[in-house]
Specification:
Two copies of one chain form a homodimer. With 286 residues, chain A is α/β, with parallel strands linked by helices. The first copy, chain A, is built from eleven helices and nine strands. At the A-B interface, helix 7, helix 8, helix 9, helix 10 and helix 11 of A face helix 7, helix 8, helix 9, helix 10 and helix 11 of B.
């Protein structure tokens, strides 16, 4: 499979653009064709070396591509995969880069069953844990996936060869690849990614603007992701609603324990809770 | 006053060490004498150029110093200022770098009234907003205060000349200086500094260790300060208890609004709340 003859990227933003840059800089693909809503962004991606060509239609983009990566916003992925599947070459493998998985994978499974995809066309979900509050091909980087984790989410019908193909693909871009079911992915990411966003938004939103001159590194780090794209995050949160609600409640319990220890001036308990947090944080490093 | 003839620093950690380094690198003081619990740390500070001499006793440290800066942990500051005041030269000005102010300033006011300080010795509280999760003279930097805010907290009896002296002092180190009452300081900092620490600790503490491989930049930024020193933060939170409890409740209200919008799948409300957070965050920059 490697080097790929032709890879198509649908949605050439930070993630899609970084995939293209990494593929071409590392000589992993002969042709990388991109398609997206903004012509200016596509041209920028091409100028930056993230694409060898841009396409005006899905048909042209996916024709002859053996791998298609859908990198559009979460609420759009299932529809885009369905459009891609209608037009792509027999035996093409489609994947995505969405931050949630269960709803997307289920929707795609239902459309595939309802509309009969071309022979041998398959979809396997994926999620590179390599976001940023920055957006667009302008911020794409060939090294975005180096030492990052990519979660591939096979379902019962997924063939082992397709999982192996995606493992090879992401590994070649420098990432570590792990497998999870779509449901497990959404449970884990609710706590490690979606909850932090909600918490950062609550913290930023609870800060009076007139107090901003009295913030320092702590507030700035803790709220950084609240500066991220609203529409993107609204879609992610709604798409993983039940898990995120559970994660908020779990977090609130923990906050309640800290509040109670402080309220009662229980010095030892406060120390214990701060110590447990520090231990988790330091288990990760930097 | 500038250059200072002799400045004494009590507690030569990240803040105290950085003050010493900045004073000496900028030729703002002829002599900077440090005193602290750890002889190894004091020697390191001296080797790094943060001190011209180390002292074995408070008496020796403060003799002849016209400015003494107490940079010990919050729970210790009032006692250390009292010890300094007993031994320092007539007309010396004492300040501190503690992260909370009202309790400290009140305790010092009571000790001063009870024990009669030497003629002309005064204390005015201060707080440079330039912390870090790093500690010790090893991490001290001559530029730690450049473009940072220092809050000086005069009380009714404070003379304008002393406020001016502290303004000059911190400005010479590159900082912006603002004045607030100790009570106002503690209210504002509860929201901009102490609350973020509690929130980061709750978030880190709510994360299962086995999920850490699935965190990315968002979780890492949002929890960074939870890796900070436990004892230091326990003291800060307890010293500003009522304000921090109020800030937690205000934050929880905001989190509850986000939770409710998500629970009801109120897309427009979710967008509004995320948008308000983004606006506050982006009003600050980086």
């Amino acid at each position: 499979m490697i080097p790929w003859n032709k890879v198509a990227i649908v949605g050439v933003g930070l993630i899609g653009g970084s995939i293209g840059l990494a593929l071409l800089r590392r000589n992993l693909a002969r042709e990388v064709v991109g398609i997206g809503r903004s012509e200016a962004n596509l041209q920028l991606a091409r100028q930056r070396g993230a694409l060898t060509a841009t396409a005006q239609s899905i048909e042209a983009a996916v024709a002859g591509a053996s791998l298609i990566i859908v990198c559009t916003p979460v609420a759009q992925i299932a529809r885009d995969v369905q459009r891609v599947a209608q037009h792509c070459t027999a035996d093409a493998l489609i994947t995505d880069a969405g931050s949630t998985k269960l709803e997307i994978v289920q929707q795609i499974g239902r459309s595939a069953a309802a509309s009969r995809w071309p022979a041998g066309v398959r979809f396997v979900g994926g999620h590179p844990l390599a976001g940023s509050e920055k957006r667009g091909a302008a911020h794409a980087s060939a090294d975005l996936f180096v030492d990052r984790t990519v979660i591939v989410t096979p379902v019962e019908e997924t063939g082992a060869a397709d999982v192996a193909t995606l493992r090879d693909f992401w590994s070649a871009l420098g990432a570590r690849v792990v497998e999870m079911s779509p449901a497990q992915h959404d449970q884990v990411l609710a706590r490690t990614s979606h909850l932090p966003h909600v918490v950062a938004a609550a913290l930023a939103g609870a800060t009076p603007v007139e107090s901003l001159p009295y913030t320092a590194g702590g507030w700035q780090d803790t709220t950084r992701i609240a500066g991220g794209d609203i529409e993107l995050w609204r879609q992610i949160l709604l798409s993983n609603r039940a898990n995120v609600l559970g994660a908020i409640d779990h977090f609130s319990d923990r906050l309640g324990q800290l509040r109670s220890a402080l309220d009662r001036a229980e010095s030892a308990q406060l120390e214990k809770l701060l110590g447990e947090a520090r231990q988790v944080r330091n288990a990760l490093g930097s």
